[in-house]
Amino acid sequence: MKNIRKLSVLAIVLALIFAFTACGATSNDEEGEAKIIRVAASPTPHAEILNSIADNLEEEGWTLEVVEFDDYVQPNVATTEGDVDANYFQHVPYLEQYNDENGTELVAVGNVHYEAMGAYKGTKASFDELADGDKIAVPNDVTNEARALQLLAANGVLTLKDGVGLEATKTDIVDNPKNIEIVELEAATIPASLPDVAVGVINANYALGAGLTTDDAIAYESEDSEAAETYVNVIVVNAGNEDSEKTKALVAAIQTDEVKEFIAEQFKGAVQAKF
Question: Do residues 120 and 270 touch, judged by C-beta distance below 8 A?
Fold first, then answer.
C-alpha cells in the first residue's frame, strides 16, 4: 500500500509538472506570435521596400511577414479584420475615401514614399521633338489625369488655368502651342501604347511593372510638387493601434536613412522617400 501511495503521489506531481510545462509552452507560443508583424502590401514597390527591412527587424526580435495583394481593397479588409497588423499600399486621399465609403477606422501612422508620375518616351525621345498634332497618352481617371497635365505644364508642353491644381482636366488647357492631342487611356494600358504615341505619362507602379526605367523617362514630377505632397504612400493600422509595440517597431524600421538609400538605388527616381 505504501508503494502504491508513493506512486500515486509521484503521478500527481508529474501530472502537475506536465500541466505547468504545457502552460508555459502555450505562453511562449503566444509570446512568439506577438513578435510577428504581418503587413499587407502591393508587390511593387511596397513589398520590396518592406522586405528590405526584414533583417533589421529580426535583429530587434521581430519576424516580418509580408502578405502581397494585387488589388486596392483586400489590404484594407485584411487590416480591418485583424488578419494583418498593418498595410502599406495607399496614399491618404484613397484611405480617407475608403473609410468614408466603408465605415472603417483605419489611420495612417507613417509616411514612406511617393511614386513619381513620369513622362516616358514613345515615338519621341524628348519634349523638344514634339511636332504639331502629336499624341500624348495620359491616365483617364480624374486624379491621375490632373497629375499628368500638371507634369506636361511644368515642362512647357501646355498651359493650364491658374489654380486648377490636382483637379485639372483637358478643358482647363488654355494654351497648347503644338496642338498636342491628349489621349485619355486606362492607366494600366499606357505602357503598351507607347509605340503609338509620342509620349506616355505613366504612374510609377505601372511603369515599374512594365520594366520601364529612368533611361526611358523624359521627366518626372518634382519632389516638391503638389502631387508629391498629397500622394505620399503610408503605413496604415486600425484606430487604437497607433502606439502599439508592433506599429512603433515597423515605422521605426522603415523610416531610416538605410531605407532612403535602398529606395534611391532600387527605383532610380521613380519612387522617392518622403520621411
Answer: no
Return the biggest CA–CA distance within the chain.
109
C-alpha cell at 146: 490632373
Residue 186 sits in the same domain as residue 103 = no
Residue 64: in which H helix or E strand, if any? Answer: strand 63-68
User: Could you report the per-residue pLDDT of 71-117, keeping only the tens digit for each?
Assistant: 889 999 999 999 999 999 999 999 999 999 999 999 999 999 998 89
Look at the block and give the residue holding cell 496642338.
Answer: 179
**Domain membership flag for residue 225:** no
Contacts with 58 (C-beta within 8 Å, 6 or more apart), sequence order:
64
Contacts of 112 (CB under 8 A, 6+ apart): 49, 88, 232, 233, 234, 235, 254, 255, 259, 273, 274, 275
Residues with Cβ < 8 Å from 28, sequence gap 6 or more? none
Residues 134 and 105 both lie in one domain: no
Find the angle CA(75)-CA(78)-CA(79) to the nearest 5 degrees.
Answer: 85
Burial per residue of 131-166, b for 16 or more beta-carbon CB atoms within 10 angstroms, e otherwise: eeebbbbbbeeebbbbbbbbbbbeeebbebeeebeb
204 assigned to some structural domain: yes
Whether residue 3 lies inside any domain: the answer is no
DSSP structural state of residue 52: T
Residue 6, domain member (yes or no):
no
Q: Residue 165: which domain range?
A: 118-220
Q: CATH code at 269?
A: 3.40.190.10
pTM, 2 dp: 0.73
Number of domains in the chain: 2
The set of cell numbers assigned to 80 is: 480591418
